[in-house]
Amino acid sequence: MSEWELPDRPVIGILHPGAMGAALGSALKRRAGAVIWADAGRSHATAKRAELADLVAVPTVEDLARRAHVVISICPPGAAREVAEQVAAAVEGQPRRPLFVEANAVSPGTVTGMADLFPDDGLVDAAVIGPPAWERGTTVLWLAGPHATLVEALFAGTPFDARHLGPELGRASALKACFALQSKALPAIWLALDEAARTLDVDEPLRAELARTGVDYPGSLDAITRVAKEKGWRWVAEMEEAAATLAAAGVPTGFSEAAAEMYRRS
């Protein structure tokens, strides 16, 4: 295993600064020589978030990969492999490669499948649990892999509480997938219940029975409906990755697969 070293103030690349990526980038500014992002093909909303977080734009993913000492991938789960391949291709044959932090909601199998793209243990498995963090106490960044401690040190004293799970790739992603069962798969039952009750014309008596037994059905349904309209499109792939995680553990996958389908309909 090769030794990795980071300069005192490394250049850190964020792919891509959505709400979470912007918060991660902002958190690292104090420790970094620069926090950069690739603006080619990105939306005005992404550019605005990066500007507000005071991140430095570079033209392309290739430029970012070749300048950065650390690259953090935080994107929709369905794009995670593509982003990793773009970074790996950009630095192939280069004298220096960045440490690649895979921080997306993907399965352990997806993470370990990316390891060959980053030789010498150059990939760190990461999982963010909590909202975009602008102050401490809300969000934990779980890390795993042979060089996870390097990333843990970068986040010391930031709003993200970085915690190390050990050297085995996939543990952070496994934790994220299991957590997502209760944070995203369980709430999807309200969407399924609502659709079934309306289709079968038992919506009113169901609401009455749930109210009689102390269940806040309207509140629970309204909460997940609002969030699903905003984020359901990206939760589809996350639930599919969670299903792959369950399958690898020998656990039935129907919970996550059903949630993915309900979010696909949102």
Question: What report would you give on this structure?
Answer:
- The chain is of the alpha/beta class.
- It folds into two domains: 11-172, NAD(P)-binding Rossmann-like Domain (Rossmann fold, 3-Layer(aba) Sandwich); 186-265, no CATH class.
- The protein is built from eleven helices and eight strands.
- The chain has helices at residues 19-28, 44-52, 61-67, 80-91, 108-114, 148-154, 171-185, 188-199, 203-212, 217-248, 254-265, and strands at residues 11-15, 34-38, 56-58, 70-73, 99-102, 123-129, 139-144, 160-164.
- The protein has an eight-stranded mixed beta sheet with strand order 3-2-1-4-5-6-7-8, sandwiched between helices.
- Helix 10 packs across helix 11 (254-265).
- The radius of gyration is 20 Å and the shape is elongated.
- The protein starts with 10 loop residues before the first strand and ends with a helix.
- The relative contact order is 0.11.
- The model has no long low-confidence stretch (mean pLDDT 95).
Summarize the structure.
This protein is of the alpha/beta class and 266 residues long. It contains eleven helices and eight strands. It has helices at 19-28, 44-52, 61-67, 80-91, 108-114, 148-154, 171-185, 188-199, 203-212, 217-248, 254-265; strands at 11-15, 34-38, 56-58, 70-73, 99-102, 123-129, 139-144, 160-164.
Give the SSE layout.
Elements: E1 11-15, H1 19-28, E2 34-38, H2 44-52, E3 56-58, H3 61-67, E4 70-73, H4 80-91, E5 99-102, H5 108-114, E6 123-129, E7 139-144, H6 148-154, E8 160-164, H7 171-185, H8 188-199, H9 203-212, H10 217-248, H11 254-265
Parallel strand pairs: 1-2, 1-4, 2-3, 4-5, 5-6, 7-8
Antiparallel strand pairs: 6-7
